[in-house]
Every structure is written in C-alpha cells, then in structure tokens.
Design goal:
This protein is mainly alpha-helical and about 220 residues long. The protein has 9 helices and 2 strands; from the N terminus they run αββαααααααα.
Amino acid sequence: MRGKFLFAALIVTGAVALLVPVLLSHETATRVDTYSIRADVPYMVSPPVVPSEAVFAGDTVDLRRYDMRERMDRELMSFTYMHSSTMLIIKKANRLYPVIEPILKEQGVPDDLKYLMTIESNLNMRAVSPAGAAGLWQFMAGTARDNGLEVNANIDERYNVEKATRAACAHLKSLYERFGDWLTVGAAYNAGHGRIGGERTRQGREEAVDLWLNEETSRYMF
C-alpha cells in the first residue's frame, strides 16, 4: 500500500513539475503580449501635453502661439525623459529648497525663481562653469561683488547658500526694475543685462520671448 502511495505521489509531483513551467511561460507570453507592439494598445513613449498657457512668477505666458508652443514642447520632452538627471535634482531640491524658499519670500522675489537657480547649477553647490561662474546661482566674481558677496583669494561667498541667495535676490530685483517681466529677467540673468537691453533696442521688442537670441538663452527661459 505504501509503495502505491509513493508511486502516486511521484506521478503527481512529476506532473506539477512539467505543468508549472508551461503555466509560467504562458503567463509570461501573455504579459509580454500585453505590453508589446503586438498588443491592441502597444507600449509607447509619448510626449507630455503642452498646456495652452503657463504661469511663471505671477506672469501668464500664452503658449498657443505656434513658436512658443514648439519651444515649450522641446524643453518638456528634454526634461521629462532625462530620468537620471531629473531624479538627482529632485533629491537635492528636497534638501535645498527649504533653505532657499524662505529667503526668496523674505526678499520679495517670486518663489518660481528657485527654478532659475536649479537650471543654472543643477543644484550642485560646488558647480563652476568654464567661464568661472560659481555656486548654486552661478555668479561671476564681478557680479557677486557688485551684490555684496566677498570673493577673493581666501574667501568665496558664492558657495555660501544663504548669502549667495540673498545676493541673487538683490540682482534679480534690480533686473526686474529695468525690464519689468520675469522671463526677460531670466534671459538677462543668462546672457547679461547689457546684451538683452541692446537686443531690445535693436529689435524693437520689449519681452525676451519675442527677441531673436542665441539658442542657449532662447531655451533657457523655457
């Protein structure tokens, strides 16, 4: 009797051993089929939707104009699919924004300007550009000194998060007094106020989004 029981048990075990891989392979095939190009609804990478308008620093930007829409579309796609860089920036933002945001509020600078700092340095506090701009806000030495930072052979306050942020606020507010809209302030922060002021005069347009500028500055605003 015992022998018959063992024999039956071996038969069942063998059947299960043969059946499980078949079931798993069927499940895998079904799962792959669901998410492959053979499925009715294939997996795909799709661009993010461009809104009809966006609000930056309290100003509404109309994105229905075709050139504005295409420029916004380009930057949305670039940043949406730069996953590794984006995730690292988000991790740094969780640590740095709580320091930056109260200073912007205290100084009367729109909170959205923290994103200007983000695009300047990728939130790398030790960032140094080939031209010599340094710190989170990427100040050139002369501009840093003009806005109250100490920069010399022994001390460089461009790397001090709080002091550099207050200096950036002073600089941004002076640019806003001259240009009157925050996107143009962003362009001037990137390209220099002299260049943007000259291009506004030469091209007869007030807002930087309407100016023909170099690619870096044109993309920078978006």
